[in-house]
Amino acid sequence: MKPEYKPLRAYRTISLVCVFLLFSAFVLLLLVGVSLPIVHPVYIMRVYATPTGPKTSLDTELRFGVWGVCAYSQLNPPSVLNDDGLCYGPRLGYQDVIPASILAQIGLSTALLDAALKGLLAVLIIHIVAAGFSLAGLFTSLFLASHGMTILSLVLTVITAILATVVFVVDVVITAVARAKIPEFASGLQVGVGNGVWMVLAALVASWAGVVFLSARACFCCGVRRRDYKY
């Protein structure tokens, strides 16, 4: 193996920082990419009603993940340790996944749900794609002694950051549209932002921070100097 292709042979501080940032982005994007109903605590959005009266087994909340939907009731509330919700999936896309009877319990029609979530299918898979690019950038960032590997790592990290930005914007827009439309047509319903959205935001920040560090190494700027190493 050539010296410049030995892990952490040079620019170790930058390399370790980038590895930490990209690993964090990878884990966050992967968790969101395999969110509910695979990983129950992670979800993108929830639609819920505020019940009145005694507790019942009727479903009052729907939580949406990348691969499906889970329904919860007052007697079976969602929690970190609770994976007993009535879930539909895993499958990509929500069309014809949720029985009309479940939607009727919380006052939501299938047509309204489809309208509120229009376009979601096209971007769901990007969560996994972004995680893959982050993992590739993490690996190449170990070899910053090579200028070519530095450029490759920078390109992969820029792609990761762009994909994470797209995913975050789309997740926020979809949640905002659902929040605006669903209560308008179904009184008593509310829409909440899931923790998956904030996890994507954290991955976005970590990815762009990685871009900054790798750019400093690639162009020898921001205090990073060109060095001649004797191997």
Automatic annotation (TrEMBL):
InterPro entries: pH-response_reg_palI/RIM9 (IPR051380), SUR7/Rim9-like_fungi (IPR009571)
Signal peptide: none
GO (cellular component) term, any one: cell division site
Highest rank taxon of the organism: Eukaryota
Bilayer-spanning residue ranges: 12-38, 120-144, 151-177, 197-220
Keywords assigned: Membrane, Transmembrane, Transmembrane helix
Record-given protein name: Pali-domain-containing protein
Annotated organism of origin: Lentinula raphanica
